[in-house]
Amino acid sequence: MQIGFFDSGIGGITVLYEALKVLPKEDYIYYADTLNVPYGPKPKDEVKEYIFNAIDFITKQRVKAIVIACNTATSVAIEELRAKYSIPIIGMEPAVKPAVENNKDNKRVLVTATALTLKEEKLQNLIAKLDSGHIVDLLPLPELVQFAERFEFDEHTVLPYLRKQLSEYDLCNYETIVLGCTHFPYYKDMFRKLLPPEVSIIDGSFGTVKNLKRILEEKDLIKEGNGSITFYHSGLKVEDNIILDKYIGLLKRLDTINK
């Protein structure tokens, strides 16, 4: 049986990348809801409908677990998904907890994500619980999702946008930047160019995959497969070699960024 990964677009491939390192012999389905991306600017009820349509499809593909590799989808639907489906469903959230708990220098934490993720009750409750010192600031970066979905990784295009968005902050006052959307790690190298060297950049991908592995082990669901990945676009299997090569290229880009 396979492990299903779901995202509104290509962002969740950054989480799949971590899974391939931790569970390299598992077989995977990756479902990108490309007909409806991006989710961030859309109404919550509309996004929920897209999510449930996608998960209905994925559960019919003989999967043993599903990773909601999308912070926005997790924030608006994870509890209802778990109530509906019997297989393990692993969500993710911006890595606010490690950012706050590991803060040693009493500096600030900047959480970047989509607007919908940042305003959702799930994240607001998490911050209220953890941020007793009121050190967390929130910054929506919706254009990064659009850049990624267009496979735009040119510094001449993306860096000016990031520079403008970060210009309102005195970055020397920050200890950690949280990449709270799965699309954002594609631009980690560009964040690094704009941040002071002592500022850490973290995201929730590794923690999500660690949780996936733990649940699979607890349920004795770790099985060796072929390490295959089958891609779907909004319910249609991707068989175009040009598109498949683009996806493999994303995994290679992440290899380069994370060296």
TrEMBL record:
Coiled-coil annotated spans: none
Ligand binding (substrate): D7, S8, Y39, G40, N71, T72, T182, H183
Gene designation per UniProt: murI
Keywords per UniProt: Cell shape, Cell wall biogenesis/degradation, Isomerase, Peptidoglycan synthesis
Enzyme class name: isomerase
GO BP, one annotated term: peptidoglycan biosynthetic process
Gene Ontology molecular functions: glutamate racemase activity
Family: Belongs to the aspartate/glutamate racemases family.
Domain of life: Bacteria
Organism in which the protein naturally occurs: Anaerocolumna sedimenticola
Pathway membership: Cell wall biogenesis; peptidoglycan biosynthesis
UniProt-annotated catalytic positions: C70 (proton donor/acceptor), C181 (proton donor/acceptor)
UniProt protein name: Glutamate racemase
EC number: 5.1.1.3
Catalytic function, reaction form: L-glutamate = D-glutamate
Entry function: Provides the (R)-glutamate required for cell wall biosynthesis.
Electron transport recorded as keyword: no
Pfam families for this protein: Asp_Glu_race
Keyword Ligase (UniProt): no
